[in-house]
Amino acid sequence: MKFDKVVRAGINGCGNIVVEQILHYLLGKDKVISTFRYLDNLEPNNQCHVSGLEKLHLGVVIPERDFRSALASQIRKRKLSPTRANIQHIYNTLFSIMYRNRHQYTTRFPNQDNILVLDYRLYFDNIDYILDELQRFLEITVTAEQRKEILWRFSRENNKKIARTMPNWQTVDPVSGVHGMHIGTSQPDSWKTFFPPELHEFVTKLMRSELIEYGWEKND
């Protein structure tokens, strides 16, 4: 593999679990760091990184989804109604923090060539796309046998079955990493059906700067 370790970064609610599962399968869990925080390979004053890691050659994989759908996922998992107050609350207390961490990979990470952003619109129900991108980025070979097993083992249907056995969001299956209520309305534009139509404009205005920054809305 090209890197010492791979960081699975990004924002919660962007289909991270399937990417994480595939990375674990291909590389082993000891080679994958899963976090929604910012992590880099810089060591100010020659000290160990704040994470406790020594300096490593890191690759970063970021699953990315329309941020409105990510926000909808975060609200749904907590069994909250999609009201104006709940939208504002989750945006302020959860989404905005994860967004700042994700944005630091754009502004601070020393080598942008070591970052792979996976577009949710392209990998929704398309694990082959994820495998092709990881194979190229990590400079590894995915065999036909591995591909066949991955397509079956980490399909959305299988992950949904596991999620149904978990009583709530706080419960995690130790093998797959799937939470209860983990796999919900997974369509790329699920925010349009989750949020009431009368709140679409509110959500878009609330997240306008983030949406424009990463190309989910045009700066008209």
UniProtKB/TrEMBL annotation:
Residues 93-212 form the Sulfotransferase domain. SUPFAM superfamilies: P-loop containing nucleoside triphosphate hydrolases (SSF52540). This is Sulfotransferase domain-containing protein. InterPro entries: P-loop_NTPase, Sulfotransferase_dom. GO terms for molecular function: sulfotransferase activity. Pfam families: Sulfotransfer_1.
